[in-house]
Amino acid sequence: MNIKMKYIILTILICFSTVADAQIKKYFKFATFYGAVNGGTSISDVDVYSVTNGLQTSVVQTPYDYNIALGVRKIARFGYENRSTFYDGTEDSWSDGASIGKVSGLEFLFELDYKRLQSQNYVDQHHFIRFVDNKYILKGEYLEDGFANIKYFETSERYRCKINSKLSFNIGAAQRLSEPYGYDPLQQWLLPNGDIHYTYLAIMEGYTVDVYANEYKDPNGNIVATNSEVWSAVVVPTILREYTERETNSLDLLLQHSVVIGFDFYHYKKDFWMHTWGNLMPYHYDDGNEYSYHKYEGKQWLDYSGGVIFGYKYNKNLGTFFEGKYNKYWNKEWYDFKLGLNYVIF
């Protein structure tokens, strides 16, 4: 465990310790602890045919999908959110991404998910503590999304300006701790024509290449390919992926300081509601680190996130809704959306 990862854990523990005093019961009042297991069939089995040595048939099976969720949350529900009896770990609480909750004061979420989706295993985490006041916002957050391949720890301190009971703006500073996004370990292996000198890289990684005998062996001496087609199409991509992951993971985490500007708007009535928020980071401090994102971008860049939740009932029968959230950090995007109509017959 490197020093900066210890910094993440220590910061979270410090945030927890601020509430772990004589009034801990007060802070955890109305909090919900939950655990759930969800599962289901993945993609169907696939029949694979081969005629290399006569007709042969095999079946590719994908194990079932599952999600094991553990968490605790104390977040006031907005008027448009369902008052479900139980948390089952599959809820899409997109409003958790907003800078400001429904009420002022302390709110928090700690959730850990172990997932398998179409035979791919993921570990997702979302933890945050935020304190909202009429004049300022404090927030610490850790996000790990295996499907989107994004992981970072972020803190922010913002001055809040309330325009009215529905709209407010905020400005301040954000600090993000993450792997060096933008760093590409394969750059040093690029040839002048833009191709990768993958054969030499494979040899440096311990692979043995004998083009005359059509034998390609891994570092343990096992034959992994008997022709150049399989070597190039199957083995080499695996070598490049493993090399990239190992080289990236060997580097220390980077601390990025940024200016952040945001807004939050919330309006709710039974027949019409609108909740929207946005965050923009237009300036990032360059500390001159060799692996800083400034080096790969070559200039300042824009990081931003936002969301919108909208619902409208035309009458007692017909209604429409739209919900979506979008994030872009270091040119990595992850987003969700849904929209539709509801018609109820009485």
Q: What is the global morphology?
A: globular
Please trace the helix and strand order, writing H or E for each element. Answer: HHEEEEEEEEEHEEEHEEHEEE
Total number of β-strand segments? 17
Please state the oligomeric state of the protein chains shown: single chain
Instruction: Give the fraction of residues assigned to helices.
Output: 10-25%
Quick gist of this model?
The protein has 346 residues and is α+β, with helices and mostly antiparallel strands. Helix content is 15%, strand content 47%. The N and C termini lie far apart (61 Å).
What does this structure look like?
The protein has 346 residues and is α+β, with helices and mostly antiparallel strands. The chain has 2 domains: 3-182 and 251-343, no CATH class; 185-249, no CATH class. It has helices at 3-17, 24-27, 198-204, 228-249, 293-297; strands at residues 32-40, 46-50, 56-60, 65-74, 105-117, 120-132, 136-145, 150-162, 167-178, 208-210, 215-217, 223-225, 254-269, 272-284, 303-313, 318-329, 332-343. The strands form 3 sheets. A 12-stranded antiparallel beta sheet has the order 1-4-5-6-7-8-9-13-14-15-16-17, with helices on one face. The protein has a 3-stranded antiparallel beta sheet with strand order 10-11-12. The chain is globular.
